[in-house]
């Protein structure tokens, strides 16, 4: 019997941080807690600014005096909400290339530094153009997502890599949940906590600075901790691929048939299209829900404060986290990813349709159905729409998330000007458009629109 050829010896290069990490992984036993804790913290810090503005977005646009009428606030709020995702979508590929050239550590450190600078400047904005510019630059210069996922894989043994990615996603989700709480409870501190903050203080002049300062302070601590973060990129003075070629190359690679173009792979592309529609819907929902709850009752809103809407969004986010930890795997195991998405989407439609009727309620009669509806809507958001080709999926998702706030703001502003229309007056029209988007996503989960791979049948 012919014995298989011995595995090629691993080659390490002195002075290469990637080789140093590989050596460390060979001798280390157990999970790299230090590196993964940092991965979680940086993911959390980078996620906080994304949703922290939604509870006070309506009030900020009002105070910037860019909208001539109250009904126009939603129009300008939509573009401000979209500016971050536009910046991130335009620069995400660039930061991935940079991280592959100069290293993961400098890109992640620079991303955290950009949060410190531009999130603080956003809180200091006194003009609409300044708020737009700082949010755009915050998204464009915060290129941590691709490097931090690569880093979480490179510090782990193969059997631990799924844990590394899950820590990134969990920490990101926690940041998205806690962000609205920070924005809601700390915005307009002079109005919310007059016994602690005076009108003549810096927070009286800049009522939205406090939540931004708190996030920036946390990001500063994370930035300082980057000094102790080891690099993982291989740097071999022109031989960047040497280790990978020695470790993983085989003669079979040259004989593999050419792969079919991703754009011609309909099962993949149909999943990405469906994913993008749901991403558009979910992002537009958060923006519309925030604008609707804080807008005046005379325009079909609930006249909530920033603290009220931040609290609702936080409770909804926590309910989603609890559902994912305790129930999602069982539901997904019983129904499967496709059917669970279809059921969740179908159940979301009556919840969204019920929102505009809640304007006739008040007190506990409003709080109970609103919180229950928000929690259920958060839980029913489709959980299993991650595309196999991350590059295309991330790009289309970013475009959808960039378009959603602007489109939602325009529709919200238009709807508030038609409070006495016969056909779906006021905010009834806003939630109708949201439901139509949900219906489109639901339809796309059925044949022939969605080509289901054999393993999901």
TrEMBL record:
Superkingdom, taxonomy of origin: Eukaryota
Keywords: Membrane, Transmembrane, Transmembrane helix, Transport
Pfam families to which the protein is assigned, alphabetical: MFS_1
Key word Membrane present: yes
Major facilitator superfamily (MFS) profile domain ranges (all copies): 35-453
InterPro entries: MFS (IPR011701), MFS_dom (IPR020846), MFS_trans_sf (IPR036259)
Any GO CC annotation of this UniProt entry: membrane
Topology class, membrane: Multi-pass membrane protein
CDD domains in UniProt: MFS_SLC46_TetA_like
Cell compartments where the protein resides: Membrane
Transmembrane portions of the chain: 36-61, 73-95, 107-126, 132-151, 163-186, 206-229, 268-289, 309-328, 429-450
PANTHER family on file: FACILITATOR SUPERFAMILY ANTIPORTER, PUTATIVE, EXPRESSED-RELATED (PTHR23504:SF19), MAJOR FACILITATOR SUPERFAMILY DOMAIN-CONTAINING PROTEIN 10 (PTHR23504)
Designated name of the protein: Major facilitator superfamily (MFS) profile domain-containing protein
Organism: Urochloa decumbens
């Amino acid at each position: 019997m012919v014995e298989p050829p011995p595995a090629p010896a691993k080659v390490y290069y002195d002075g290469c941080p990637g080789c140093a990490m590989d050596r460390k992984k060979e001798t280390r036993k157990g999970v790299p807690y230090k590196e993964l804790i940092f991965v979680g913290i940086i993911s959390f810090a980078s996620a906080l600014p994304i949703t922290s503005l939604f509870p006070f977005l309506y009030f900020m646009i009002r105070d910037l005096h860019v909208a001539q009428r109250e009904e126009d606030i939603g129009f300008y709020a939509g573009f401000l909400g979209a500016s971050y995702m536009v910046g991130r979508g335009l620069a995400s590929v660039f930061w991935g290339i940079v991280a592959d050239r100069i290293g993961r550590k400098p890109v992640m450190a620079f991303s955290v530094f950009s949060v410190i600078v531009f999130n603080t400047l956003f809180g200091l904005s006194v003009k609409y153009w300044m708020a737009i510019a700082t949010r755009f630059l915050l998204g464009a210069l915060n290129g941590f997502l691709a490097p931090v996922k690569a880093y979480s894989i490179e510090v782990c043994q193969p059997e631990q890599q799924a844990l590394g990615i899950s820590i990134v996603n969990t920490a990101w989700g926690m940041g998205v949940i806690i962000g609205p709480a920070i924005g809601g409870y700390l915005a307009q501190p002079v109005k919310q906590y007059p016994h602690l903050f005076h009108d003549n203080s810096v927070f009286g002049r800049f009522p939205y600075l406090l939540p931004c300062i708190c996030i920036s302070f946390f990001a500063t601590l994370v930035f300082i901790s980057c000094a102790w973060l080891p690099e993982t990129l291989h740097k071999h003075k022109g031989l960047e691929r040497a280790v990978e070629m020695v470790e993983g190359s085989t003669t079979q690679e040259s004989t593999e048939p050419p792969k079919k173009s991703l754009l011609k792979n309909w099962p993949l592309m149909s999943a990405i299209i469906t994913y993008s529609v749901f991403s558009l819907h979910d992002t537009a929902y958060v923006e519309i829900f925030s604008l609707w709850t804080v807008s005046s009752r005379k325009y079909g809103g609930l006249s909530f404060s920033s603290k009220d809407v931040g609290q609702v969004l936080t409770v909804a986010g926590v309910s989603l986290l609890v559902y994912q930890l305790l129930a999602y795997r069982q539901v997904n195991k019983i129904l499967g990813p496709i059917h669970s998405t279809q059921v969740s989407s179908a159940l979301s439609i009556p919840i969204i349709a019920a929102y505009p009727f809640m304007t006739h309620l008040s007190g506990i009669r409003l709080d109970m159905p609103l919180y229950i509806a928000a929690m259920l809507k958060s839980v029913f958001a489709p959980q299993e729409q991650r595309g196999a080709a991350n590059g295309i999926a991330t790009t289309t998702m970013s475009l959808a998330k960039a378009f959603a706030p602007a489109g939602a703001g325009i529709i919200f502003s238009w709807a508030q000007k038609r409070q006495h229309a016969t056909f779906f007056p006021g905010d009834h029209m806003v939630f109708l458009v949201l439901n139509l988007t949900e219906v489109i996503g639901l339809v796309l989960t059925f044949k022939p629109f969605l080509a289901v791979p054999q393993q999901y049948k």
